[in-house]
Each structure stands twice: as structure tokens, then as C-alpha cells.
Amino acid sequence: MSIAIVADSNSGVTQNEARELGIHVLPMPFMINGEVYYEGIDLTHQEFYKRMEEGADITTSQPSPKDVLELWDNLLKEYDEIVYIPMSSGLSGSCQTAMMLADEYDGRVQVVNNQRISVTQRQSALDARDLAAKGYRAGEIKNILEETKFNSIIYITVDTLKYLRKGGRITPAAAALGTLLKIKPVLTIEGEKLDAFSKARTMKQARTTMLTALAHDLEERLGDKNAFHTYLQIAHTCNEEAAEELKETVRELYPSAPVFVAPLSLSIGCHIGPGALAVACTGMLKELD
């Protein structure tokens, strides 16, 4: 039984990385000043943030049903089943659309709604690949990933309130006051949505807040205080130097845990802008021990 593992580019996995990792990635479309671009195909992260800082009109979009079906049909010529892991259903309608499309495939396509995005979605794709290698069927992989969907969380701090205001996530008055007071909000992605978590006055304080929250989640949520059985992840938007510094701090705190660093997906970057920094954790699957 051969199983193809597919994620969308919200996972942060590039086309080249996908080939190396043995998975497949559907590129997400973006509208920039009325033109369609595809993440990782004709739109790099550097180009995206350059256009954003220039004031371009940028909106996210779902993959077209045609693109999704074309990818699935091509893969099913080679594979028996597909596990498709789109971004969180709470952040986009693409998951529900994929579920409707999958109804026509008689169970050969299993759409996973485990409410992940970015580095945690990436880990889901890798877990699915490893489960398939151990002989699990597509439906079994879907069930395992959905049963463990709350075993991960992301904390993000932003460098500017400009893009949260532009996207309507905070009011212009709140953005103006926050900018005046130099507030650095800490946001969280847990399950279905991006929410406010805390506030800090400096990026240093925001980092401390995120690391404190991470420590709490490791002990209380995952029961893994020392991260012996947890993946730790650092993500950023055009903030690689700070991300590497945070990685070293996390490694000192949790020397036994693997720590991965990657850019945040553009679907998140669209709402928070450049300069953001995130820390995340994802519990390891007992089936892969």
C-alpha cells in the first residue's frame, strides 16, 4: 500500500524541501495588486515582504478546486491513497473545501483537519510520512493526527501593529495607542484561531513571555517538562537572526529536544508583517516511538 502525503505551502515546506522529505506541497495563491502569485513558485518570502512594505494590496486565497483535484489525480496514478493536510480549518475555508472534494474519491483521499499551520503543520506532514512508512493506512493516519490535534501550540510576537490594524484584527485607535506605548503583543495559535495572549513593552519581554508560556504548556498540557518527547520549533517573518538567537536559548533550556527553525507561512505573515518571532511545541506521537 503506497500513500502520498500532501500539505499546502502554509506548512512552510518549500517545493525543494518537499522532494527531499518525501512529501508533496500544494502552493497557496495570493492576490497582490490584483495579480495571482503562488507561494514558492513565483513568489518568494523576500518578494512578498518587499511588496508588503511598499504598501501593495495583498490578500490570501484558497487553492482552486481545479488545482487540488489535478494534484490528487496525478498522485493517484502512482499511489494507492493520499493523506492531505491543509492549514487549520479555523484560519481558512480550504480545509472544508478539500473535504467536500474528497467525497468523490471513495476513501482514497483522507483530508486531515488537525488545525495546524506553519511549523506545527510541517511536523504533521512528517508524522504522516513516518506513519505511512510503518504501514498505517490513510484513514488510520487521519484519525491519529486528528486525535492529537491539541498537542501543539504556537506563540507569536509582532514587531509592528500596522498589519494587525490593516487586517482588522485590532482597531486603528488600539494600534495607535499600542504604537505610542511601544507595546509588543503576544499572540497564540491554538486549534482554530489566532488570538491575543499577552502584552509586553519590549521584544525581550515578549520573548520571556513566550518561553514562560512554553514551559507551562510542556508541563501542564503535554506532561513533558523537559521536552524529552516534544518537538520545539522557532519561526519568524524576515527575522532570521533573532530566530537563531531564540533557538540557542531554547536549546539551553531543553538540551534533549530537537529544535527546528523556519519562516512563518505567508498566510500568517500577511496579517502580522515582517519582524515577527514565534516559538511552538508539538508532542511526539506514541505510535512513532
From TrEMBL:
Disulfide bond in keyword set: no
Gene3D superfamilies: 3.30.1180.10, 3.40.50.10170
InterPro entries the record matches: DegV (IPR003797), DegV_C (IPR043168), DegV_domain_contain (IPR050270)
Molecular functions (GO terms): lipid binding
Keyword Calcium belongs to the record: no
UniProt keyword annotations, A-Z: Lipid-binding
Lineage: superkingdom: Bacteria
NCBIfam families xref list: DegV
Name under which the protein is recorded: DegV family protein
